[in-house]
Write a structure and sequence with these properties.
The complex is a heterotetramer, with 2 copies of chain A and 2 copies of chain B. Chain A is α/β, with parallel strands linked by helices. Chain A is about 45% helix and about 10% strand. The chains are: A alpha/beta, B alpha/beta. Chains in contact: A-B, A-C, A-D, B-C, B-D, C-D. Bound molecules: thiamine diphosphate (TPP) (2 copies) and magnesium ion (2 copies). One thiamine diphosphate sits at the interface of chains C and B.
Chain lengths: ~350, ~325, ~350, ~325
C-alpha cells in the first residue's frame, strides 16, 4: 500500500492542483519568503563564521526552509517545539535577527548567556521552546504542553518538529502514544530529510514511511512534500483545525532532504554520493516558493534579488556589531541553576570568583 | 490536627494543594481509580476527576516528559513513579531536560514539577522494589531532593516541593509508609527545603541520616546512650539538595566524631558526599575516622535484605568504634 | 479497518475451521495439557502459600495458559524471553517442578539464590531467559539475541513475551524497530490481557490494536485469540518459519484476559467490574483445549481429572519438601556481582560476615 | 610499535580484537561508513562488513538493550554511545539490566559487553557534549569502569574490557583523543582493570586523578615542584571500578595529604568517594584537610568552560593550601 503524498506545487513552483491552493494574503506570503531568505543567508554566513573560527559551531537548514509555512498555519500563540533546523518559525514570529546573531556569537547579549551551541535558542515570548541537544526529548514534552492547553481551556495547539532519526527515539513513541490517548491538541511534524548524520532512512527503520506509525497510536497521519511550502501550510492548518475540534493529534511526515553536511563537524563524503544531493537541489523549497510568487505576480525576480541583498547587508551589519561584544561574565556561571541560588552554590561561586580575582 | 500515617499525610497534602491551586495535576501509573499501588492517591480521582488525576500509559520517560511539557506551560505536575527502581527510563527526561531547562534557556523556560516516588528496602521487594538512588540525582545540578522521615515532614516538605519554582524529587520511604501515625495539621504549613533538623542533641558523636534510615539511626543512638553511655547527636537532613551544611558543621565541630547512615550501596552513595564535606571542612576537629554505614555494593537482595540494610546494631558498632578510637 | 483475528477453536473447544487444524502428535498435545494444568495448579497453590505467609509474593497466570502452545511451535533450542506469566514454556521444556517450587520458597536450592520475587526465574539450560521486573526491557534484548543467532548462523529464533502495558514501554519501540531494520529472527508476542494493573487497554493507547504497530516498523503482524491453543500454536509456528526464511520479525498480538488480580498485592475491585471477568472465564483456555482433546478422543474427562489430581499431589509433596529447606547463607550476598569478587567487595563481605559472627 | 594518538590506539584495539575473536561486534550510531563522529571506528566496516560494524537506529536504550541480548547469546558487543551525555535513555538497560543480569540469575545469564563513550569537557561542546557521569555508574553494582589517560592505556584497558566476563563502561576522554601520540605496541597486551599507576612519585601530597584530568593534575604537580618545591605523588586510577584502594593507601599514609581531581560536578562526584575512603581509613595520617578539585554544581557551560573545569592553577592552589595547612 503506497502512501499518498500531499503536493501542491511542482518542482518548479507551478501549481499542480489549483483546487488545493490555500488562500493566504499576499503580504504574508512575501514575508514568509523573506524569512526563508533570512534563514538561507544565516546558513551561508553561519558556516563562514564557523570556518573563520568566529563562532564555535554551525547547524545547517538549507533545503528545509519550507518549515516557515508552519508559522503561517499556526497562530502565534500556539507553542512550537523546534528540533534545530526550524528557526524560521521564530523569525517569522518576530524574534529579531539581532538577537539571533548575538546568540550565535554567544556574547553578552545572547539570551542563552553563552551556554549553548550556536543555533540552540528559544524564546518564551515567541512561544518557541528552547531546544535540547539530546534527540527526540521534545516530542513527549510537546504532548504534555498540549495537554496543559486543553486543561487550561485555551484555544491553542502545540506543534513539534523532529527528524527521521528522532523517530527512533523513545520519546517519539511515548509522545505519540501519550498524545493519542489523551487526545491532546498536538501536531507531530517529522522532517524526514533521509539522513541522521550518516545513517540513511532505510537503516533507521524497516518501515516504508514514518507516517505508517500513526495508526498504531490511533492518531491521524499525512505525508507531504516537505519542500512544498503550500503543502506544508495546508497539512499544518488542517492538523490544527482537527486538534482544536478535539480530534487529537496528527503526525505529519514531511519528505525533504538534508542537502548540506549534518553540522559544521560533519563531512558527508564518507557516506553518501553527490548525485543524490544534486537531485534534491532541484526541489529547492525557496526556488519553488519564489517561482510560485512570481507566477502569481506578487513579486518579480528583481524584487527577490533585492530582498536577498537587503537581508544580506543587514546580517553583515549585525554580525559586525555582535562580534565586538564581550562574552558573558564569570558570575553568570552560577545563575539559573535554580531560581534562587542556594548556600552551597553561593559558596562555590564565591570560591571561583575569588580564585579568578587572585589569578 | 489529624492522626495519620505517611500515606495519609501525603494524600492530604495533594488534596489540599489541588484544592488551593488549579494548576496542580497528578499523573502516573495506576494513580486513578486504583489510588496507586500504595494507595497514596486514593480517592483523589473522585474529587478531581480523571483529567487532573491522570492514569498514564506504562512509560516512565513518558510520564516525566509529559510533566515537563505541562510544567513549561504553567502547570504544576506531580508525577508519580510507581517505584523509584523504575525511574531509569526517565533518566534522560530528568537529567537532560527537567534539571537543565532553566539553565539552558538563560532562565526563561522553567519546570516547576515534583517527582514523587517510593524508595528503599525493608519490604522484601528484591532488586527492583527496594533501591535508593538519591546520590545519582544529587549529582545532577538543577534538581532538588527531599526525603521525609515522618508524616508531619512528608506533608510539609511536599507542599514546599510543589510550590518550588524548580524540579524536586520527593523520595518516599515506603518501609515506613504505614509504620506509625502522628498528628498532622490540616491546612497549610511548609517545611523549607534545605533545613536539616537536629532530632536528638548529643555531645559525643554526630549521626546524620534521612528517610527510613533515620529511625535505624535513632534506635542506634538510644542503644548507645543506654548500653554505653555515649551521647549521640542525630541530624535528620530532610532535604539532600540543597544540603544544610551549616547544621552538620555546628554538630561535628562540637562532637568531633561523624557517622552517616544511608541504605544505598556504599560506593559513591550520598554518604560519600557527607564524608567528603566533613573531611574537607572540619578535619581538624575530628577525633576519629569519618564513618559511613551503608548498604553493600551488590544489587539489592531479597532473602538477605535485613543483613544488607544498615541495622541499629550495625550503626551502634560504628558508634562504639568511633567513640573508642 | 477491522483487524482479522486468528481463531481455530471456538469458546467450547470445537474446531471452528477444521482446515486450519495443525497436525500435532497426540502425546505432545497431552503433555501440553498437563503443563497447562501444572501452571494452573501452581497458581492456586502459590496464592495460598502467599496468603499463609510462606512465600513472599505471587504472580498469577490463570487464563493465559495457552502460551504453552508457543513451546510446541518453537524448537527447544530457540530462546524465549518470558514476561512473568509464561513459565509453562520452561516447564514444557523440562524445567522441573521441583526447581520451580524451590524457587518460590527462595530456599537454598533456589537457582536464583533467594534473590528474586517468586516467579521471576530463568534457566539457561532451557533457553528461558531470566526475566527482569522493569517492564519491557526484554523486548529489545530479544531482538539482540536474534541478531546474534543470525550472526552465529544458527537455525534458531528468539521469542519474547510481554503485556499490553509493555507495548507502551520504550523497549517495545526500539525492540520492534531494531528487529525490523536488522531483519532478525525474532517473534514479538504481546499478551494483550486488557489490563496493566488498573489501567485498561483503552487508556494504554488510542490504537485499536497493538498489531496495528507492525506496519510502522516494516514487520509482519497477526492478531490471535490468545485463549485458543491452536491459534497460538499456528501463529508462532508461521512466525518461526518466516524468521528462519530470513523474512524478519513478526508481531503477534494475543487477545486474552487477566481473570485474576495483577499479583498478590493487587485488589481489582477498586477498578473493574466482576462481569467482565465472568465473561472471559467462559473462554478459559484450559477448558477449550481439554474439550478439543476430548473431542478428538485423545483423553476422557476422567483422564483429565486424574491428571489434575496427580499433579496436585506431586506439587503438595514438593511444597512440603521445599518448605523445610533453609534459606541461602549470608556469604551468597556477595556472589555473582561479578564473575570474580574484586578486593573492595571482598572487604565488604568480610566486614559483614565478621559482624554477623560477632552478633 | 606504532606512533599513534588515542583515537588510533582504540581503533587498533578494536581491529585486532575483532580479528582475534569472531564474537566481537561493534554497534552504535554512525560507527559504519562514517567511522564514528570522532573517527574511532574508521575503516572497520571495510574490513569487517556492516553486520559486525552495525550502524543502529538513533536510540541509545536500543543500542544497549540490543547489545545485552547479543552478549547473553555469546557475543562480545562493543557498543558506542556517541557522546556519554546521550547515555541517559540507556540508563535502564545499563543499571537494571546489564549490571544486574549475573546477580539476578544466580550467575547463569551473563553480559560480557563494553560500552565505549567519549566523555568530558574542553571541546566547547556545552551542556550535552561535555559531561562526566562516572560517579553515577560507579554507584551501580555490577558494572566496571575504565578511563584511559593516554593511547597506550587506551588500547591495553580496552582489550581487558572486551575480554572481561562482565559489563564494562569504557570512558574515553575526548579532549585528549588527538592531543598527543605515543608508541603503542601492535598485537596483544592488556592492562588489568583495578590497578592504578603511580605516574609520578613524591613525598608531600598525594594527587589522584584519571582520564583527561590526569594531565591537568600532572601539570599542577610540576608547577608545585618548580614554583614551590612541593613534591607531589600522582596516582592515575585507570579504572574506577574496581578501585585500587591499596595504591591510594600506600601513598596517602606516606604523604599525609590528599587531593583528588575530577571534572564532574562536585556534589556526589567520584571525588567524594575518594575523599570518603581516605577519611574512613587513614584519617590519623592526615596533616591537612582531604581536598577535591572538581567541576561546579551547575550544568556544563560553553563560553565559561575553561573556568568551570579544574585547571593546573586551581589544583596548584589546593596543593599549596594543603601543604601549608
Ligand atoms: C540522544 C542522542 N543521541 C545521539 C545524538 C547525536 N546526534 C545529533 S543529531 C543526530 C542525528 C539526528 O538525525 P535526525 O533526527 O534525522 O535529524 P536531522 O539532523 O536529520 O535534522 C545525532 C545522532 C544526539 N544529539 N542525541
Ligand atoms: C518500568 C516499570 N514500570 C512500572 C512497573 C510496575 N508494574 C509492574 S507490572 C505492571 C503492569 C504490566 O502490565 P502488562 O504489561 O499489561 O502485563 P500484565 O501484568 O498485564 O501481564 C506495572 C505497571 C514495572 N514493573 N516496570
Ligand atoms: Mg534526518
Ligand atoms: Mg496486561
Amino acid at each position: 500500500m503506497k502512501v499518498q503524498r500531499l503536493q501542491i506545487l511542482d518542482d518548479d513552483g507551478k501549481l499542480l492542483n489549483p483546487d488545493l491552493e490555500p488562500n493566504i494574503p499576499k503580504e504574508t506570503l512575501i514575508r514568509a519568503l523573506e524569512t526563508m531568505v533570512q534563514v538561507r543567508l544565516l546558513d551561508e554566513k553561519g558556516i563562514r563564521l564557523q570556518r573563520q573560527g568566529k563562532v564555535t559551531f554551525h547547524i545547517f537548514t538549507k533545503g528545509q526552509e519550507a518549515h516557515v509555512a508552519a508559522a503561517l498555519a499556526l497562530s502565534d500563540d500556539d507553542w512550537v517545539y523546534p528540533a534545530y533546523r526550524e528557526h524560521g518559525i521564530a523569525l517569522f514570529r518576530g524574534f529579531s535577527l539581532e538577537d539571533l546573531v548575538n546568540h550565535l556569537f554567544a556574547n553578552i547579549k545572547d539570551k542563552e548567556k553563552g551556554r549553548r551551541l550556536p543555533g540552540l535558542f528559544g524564546s518564551l515570548k515567541h512561544n518557541f521552546v528552547n531546544p535540547s541537544a539530546p534527540i527526540g526529548t521534545q516530542i513527549i514534552q510537546a504532548a504534555g504542553t498540549a495537554y496543559a492547553m486543553k486543561m487550561q481551556k485555551e484555544e491553542k495547539v502545540t506543534a513539534v518538529f523532529f527528524g527521521d532519526g528522532a523517530s527512533s527515539s523513545n520519546d517519539f513513541h511515548s509522545g505519540l502514544n501519550f498524545g493519542g490517548v489523551t487526545k491532546s491538541p498536538v501536531i507531530f511534524i517529522c522532517q524526514n530529510n533521509q539522513w541522521a548524520i550518516s545513517v540513511p532512512f532505510r537503516r533507521q527503520t524497516a518501515a516504508e514511511n514514518i507516517v505508517d506509525r500513526a495508526k498504531g497510536y490511533g492518531i491521524e497521519g499525512i505525508q507531504i512534500d516537505g519542500n512544498d511550502f503550500l503543502a506544508f501550510y495546508t497539512a499544518v492548518k488542517q492538523a490544527r483545525e482537527r486538534a482544536l475540534r478535539g480530534e487529537g493529534p496528527t503526525l505529519i511526515e514531511s519528505i525533504t532532504y538534508r542537502v548540506t553536511p549534518h553540522t559544521s563537524s560533519d563531512d558527508p563524503k564518507a557516506y553518501r554520493s553527490e548525485e543524490e544531493v544534486k537531485k534534491w537541489e532541484q526541489k529547492d523549497p525557496i526556488k519553488r516558493f519564489k517561482n510560485y510568487l512570481i507566477g502569481k505576480k506578487y513579486i518579480s525576480e528583481k524584487d527577490y534579488e533585492k530582498m536577498v541583498e537587503r537581508n544580506s547587508e543587514l546580517l553583515d551589519e549585525l554580525i559586525d556589531k555582535a562580534e565586538t561584544l564581550p562574552k558573558p561574565g564569570l558570575s553568570t556561571l552560577f545563575d539559573d541553576v535554580f531560581e534562587t541560588i542556594p548556600p552551597y552554590l553561593l559558596e562555590e561561586k564565591e570560591e571561583l570568583l575569588e580564585f579568578y580575582k587572585e589569578a | 490536627m489529624v492522626e495519620t500515617n505517611m500515606v495519609g499525610a501525603i494524600n492530604m497534602a495533594l488534596r489540599e494543594e489541588m484544592e488551593r491551586d488549579e494548576s496542580v495535576v497528578v499523573l502516573g501509573e495506576d494513580v486513578g481509580k486504583d489510588g496507586g499501588v500504595f494507595k497514596v492517591t486514593a480517592g483523589l480521582i473522585d474529587k478531581f476527576g480523571p483529567e487532573r488525576i491522570l492514569d498514564t500509559p506504562l512509560n516512565e520517560s513518558g510520564i516525566i516528559g509529559f510533566a515537563v511539557g505541562m510544567a513549561l506551560k504553567g502547570m504544576r505536575p506531580v508525577a508519580e513513579i510507581q517505584f523509584i527502581d523504575f525511574i531509569w527510563p526517565a533518566a534522560d527526561q530528568i537529567i537532560s531536560e527537567a534539571a537543565k531547562f532553566r539553565y539552558r534557556s538563560g532562565g526563561e523556560f522553567t519546570v516547576p514539577m515534583v517527582i514523587r516516588s517510593p524508595y528503599g528496602g525493608g519490604v522484601k521487594g528484591a532488586h527492583y522494589h527496594s533501591q535508593s538512588p538519591e546520590s545519582i540525582f544529587a549529582h545532577t545540578a538543577g534538581i532538588k531532593i527531599a526525603v521525609p522521615s515522618n508524616p508531619y515532614e512528608a506533608k510539609g516538605l511536599l507542599l514546599s516541593a510543589i510550590r518550588d519554582p524548580d524540579p524536586v524529587l520527593f523520595m518516599e520511604p515506603k518501609r515506613i509508609y504505614r509504620a506509625f501515625t502522628q498528628e498532622v495539621p490540616e491546612g497549610e504549613y511548609t517545611i523549607p527545603l534545605g533545613e536539616a533538623d537536629v532530632v536528638r542533641e548529643g555531645s559525643d558523636v554526630t549521626l546524620v541520616s534521612y528517610g527510613s534510615m533515620l529511625h535505624v539511626t535513632l534506635d542506634a543512638a538510644l542503644m548507645a546512650e543506654e548500653q554505653h553511655g555515649i551521647s549521640c547527636e542525630v541530624i535528620n537532613l530532610r532535604s539532600i539538595v540543597p544540603l544544610d551544611i551549616e547544621t552538620i558543621g555546628r554538630s561535628v565541630t562540637k562532637t568531633g566524631r561523624f557517622i552517616s547512615v544511608s541504605e544505598a550501596p556504599r560506593t559513591a552513595g550520598f554518604s560519600a558526599e557527607l564524608s567528603a564535606l566533613v573531611a574537607e571542612r572540619w578535619i581538624e576537629y575530628m577525633e576519629s575516622p569519618i564513618f559511613r554505614v551503608t548498604g553493600y555494593d551488590t544489587p539489592f537482595p531479597m532473602i538477605l535484605e535485613s543483613q544488607y540494610l544498615p541495622t541499629p546494631e550495625r550503626v551502634l558498632a560504628k558508634i562504639v568504634e568511633s567513640y573508642n578510637y
